[in-house]
Amino acid sequence: MTTALADPAILALLGFAIFAALLAWLPGGRSDRALTRRIRRIRHAAIEAQAAPRRPSDLVRRERATRLGSMAAALQRAMPRLERMQARFAQAGLTWAPADALVTALLLAGILSLAFTILGLPLPAATALAISLVFGGGMLFVSRLVARRAQKFLSLLPEAIELVVRAVKAGLPVSEAIALIGEEVADPVGEVFREVASNMRIGMGLEEALWQATRRVDLAEFRFLVVSVALQRETGGNLAGILSNLATMVRRREQMKLKVRAMSSEARASAAIIGSLPFLVGAIIFAINPDYIAKLFVDPRGQMLALFGLASMLTGIAVIARLVRFDI
Questions:
Q1: pLDDT by residue (tens digit) across 234-290?
Q2: Gap between the Cα atoms of 168 and 246, Å rounded
Q3: Number of CB atoms found within 10 A of residue 103's CB
Q4: Peptide bond between residue 188 and the one before it cis (omega within 30 degrees of 0)
Q5: How far is CA 204 from the centre of its chain?
């Protein structure tokens, strides 16, 4: 059993299948994200030049103290890209420190590696499998939280925009309307605008505070709101009319997403049934005749077939998941 599981070809195939499954669930590919960042830089270059980043959050709150001592502090100094991880955590609504998360993940990977070694896997294979499971599972968990928070944010954003429209029509300045959103609209929209209002109270400009908030809310609809407010303050115009049209557009986009989701529900249900059917049949066979299916786990040839089947299933599920996902 150990020899079969330690086969490099089998481990490579299993790793590829896990990678394909994670790729299917993670939002967008690297090229899509790079293109989006490039378009964003070109579109907002003039506005962002006036709102140069100053890390205003450092004036509002201290960097969250690490709980894991000098190891986390060393990671914080050695890995400048942890700021990107911190932004990802903020988008998910998490308050974790990146260094703490990395140290915790390494500890979990060590525990899993030890468990796999006790079960009979060689140390290199056990370590590679443990790291893949911990970091892959962590990425998947954070990505699902980001998607869930973004969906909730989009559902509340039209209400927040219309609140600004009513406040502006009533004669209130935009800054007070922004603060009103933080008081009246539920989280996560209220939380983001409370931070914007807090930054403005300590002397930050409205545009800069809004651009700072886009680091926590990486959504095109929210960036449309920021651009609308910034351009209106630069060039003038009917802000209430602009934001009213924006609220209508956001609602229509959400309605289109719901329609697409309803139209693709049959394909998603088929994917779920096809993906779960082999495991269901295997459980039924095990309940009826355990000795018959036990050969897949006892005999080295059965182990190889089971691993190839699992890899094929994961790859197929990943492909189907990509096919039924549409970006609106």
A1: 888 888 999 999 999 999 988 888 888 888 888 788 878 888 888 899 889 989 988
A2: 15
A3: 19
A4: yes
A5: 28
Tell me the pTM: 0.66
Torsion of CA 15, 16, 17, 18, to 10 degrees: 50
What domains does the chain contain, in order, with CATH numbers?
A: 1-32+264-328 (no CATH), 150-261 (1.20.81.30)
Q: How far apart are CA 299 and CA 291, in angstroms?
A: 12
Which tens digits make up the pLDDT trace of 59-115? 434 444 444 455 555 555 555 567 788 888 888 888 888 888 888 999 999 999 898
For tokens 């926590």, the residue is: 216
User: Rounded CA gap, 182 and 24, in Å?
Assistant: 35
- Copy the structure tokens of residue 264: 């693709």
DSSP symbol at 62: P
The string of DSSP codes covering 85-115 is HHHHHHHHT----HHHHHHHHHHHHHHHHHH
